Amino acid sequence: MPLDLPIIPPFVVTYIQRGRNPSMPTVRVKENEPFEVALRRFKRSCEKAGVLTEVRRREFYEKPTEERKRKAAAARKRSLKRMRRQSMRLVRLY
């Protein structure tokens, strides 16, 4: 007796695992609202959801070593930025 369970694509599983919303951004067109305004709202919601950055990131396969290097570089950049902010906070130029 086979179970008829829906097949979930791997990218949806990663969204669920990370706690993100797996649904795509949607916009309801209001009464007498121009199409351009609704399109602008949709683009803004896509930008907030990070849809385009996710698509660009998944466009090509990224090896695990490349992913680790990218994450390490981002962590290094964040720490340098944090250190720079702290040093600016300590120095008063008045």
From TrEMBL:
InterPro entries: Ribosomal_bS21, Ribosomal_bS21_CS, Ribosomal_bS21_sf
One cellular component (GO) term of this entry: ribonucleoprotein complex
One record GO biological process: translation
Record carries keyword Ion transport: no
Gene3D superfamilies in the cross-refs: Ribosomal protein S8
GO-annotated molecular function: structural constituent of ribosome
Keywords for the protein's UniProt record, in alphabetical order: Ribonucleoprotein, Ribosomal protein
PANTHER family: MITOCHONDRIAL 28S RIBOSOMAL PROTEIN S21, SMALL RIBOSOMAL SUBUNIT PROTEIN BS21
Homology family: Belongs to the bacterial ribosomal protein bS21 family.
Name listed for the protein in its UniProt record: Small ribosomal subunit protein bS21
Organism per entry: Acidithiobacillus ferrivorans SS3
Gene responsible for this protein: rpsU
